[in-house]
Specification:
Largest sheet: 3 strands, antiparallel
Shape: globular
Strand order of the largest sheet: 2-1-3
Order of helices and strands: EEEHHHH
Helix content: 40-55%
Strand content: 5-15%
Number of helices: 4
């Protein structure tokens, strides 16, 4: 849906994913609708010191254990797919050549309460998807 004053739709980032039966690939966003084992709230599972109260994240933790994976690995795969999705959109709009000539940086933000305790899982997720990771400040 286009925002007021825009001529084309704003791209939205998928926030849910569902692994296919083999457990090695996933669908996300609208592709995950109606699938079993939908994973939500993975970012909340990265901080083991906090009790998770968001029901979908609690359910997702059980799904992730059933896949014999860790939340940090799921987050890394999600970020890798997000990066590929972003590149695909830029390529479709003909911006890919311009982007290759620029020094592009991707910034992953986390809430202030996570910075001191759980930045290691976020950094590990970034490394899994080949983002260069710098300490959070």
């Amino acid at each position: 849906m286009a925002r007021e004053g825009q001529s084309h739709p704003t791209q939205k980032v998928p926030t849910v994913l569902a692994y296919l039966p083999k457990g090695d690939t996933f669908r996300w966003g609208y592709q995950a609708e109606g699938m079993e084992n939908v994973v939500r709230g993975v970012k909340l599972l990265l901080d083991k010191s906090k009790e998770v109260l968001f029901r979908p994240a609690i359910e997702s933790e059980l799904i992730i254990k059933g896949l014999d994976r860790a939340p940090v690995g799921i987050a890394g795969e999600y970020l890798k797919s997000l990066f590929a999705h972003t590149k695909d959109i830029l390529d479709r709009h003909g911006i890919d050549k311009l982007m290759r000539s620029m020094n592009v940086q991707y910034i992953l933000t986390v809430s202030g309460s996570l910075v001191s305790r759980s930045h290691r899982p976020d950094q590990t997720s970034c490394m899994l998807c080949r983002f260069k990771s710098k300490p959070f400040v």
